[in-house]
Amino acid sequence: MEKYGVIILGAGNSSRLGQPKQLLMYQGKTLICKMAEEAIAAVGSPVVLVTGANAPLIMKKLCGFALEIIENDHWSAGMGSSISTGMKLIARHTDLAGVIIMVCDQPFVNAALLQQLIDQQTIAGKGIIACTYDNTAGTPVLFSNTYFDALAALEGQQGAKKILQQSTDDLALVPFPLGALDIDTAEDYQRLLTGQVVN
């Protein structure tokens, strides 16, 4: 059976929110613990968490999950640098068929969705399987191991979008309408808590 890893990006400083979004509570858990739990349920291991801003605070709240943790000292450079940092750690697992990259502020991501990405790769035979919402392709996104070098070479703000745009012929999509809700502001969080977005 093919083996997959997960990288959870949790390095940002949540500047628009004013507090670490990784530690917001939802359904009795912090967002970072909820994402870790779903990732582990989907793939087992390895699950790599990339921290950066607020790293000591986040490290205290990790609920005892078996995560591999790496700190991105250059988190302020953008998502590309965090993906690259996570790839350096996960690449030590040389038996992986692919990696799923996810963020910590999409509260409706669950193990079933991550498994759907893996299943879709088997069905479609494509190297990249991305979620689609709001007329865009984005996270969570699965990359086969043929993209590991390109992911490790990312830098700056652009993240993996650049690879998606360059590889449309090797891309399949999984609809995930609720992916459009990510927690960037206090208003987003209130909408989540008051059920204005229904899962």
From TrEMBL:
Keywords, alphabetical: Transferase
Pfam family, one: NTP_transf_3
Signal peptide: none
GO MF assignments: nucleotidyltransferase activity
Superkingdom classification of source: Bacteria
CDD domains from the UniProt entry: GT_2_like_f (cd04182)
MobA-like NTP transferase domain ranges (all copies): 6-167
Name listed for the protein in its UniProt record: Nucleotidyltransferase family protein
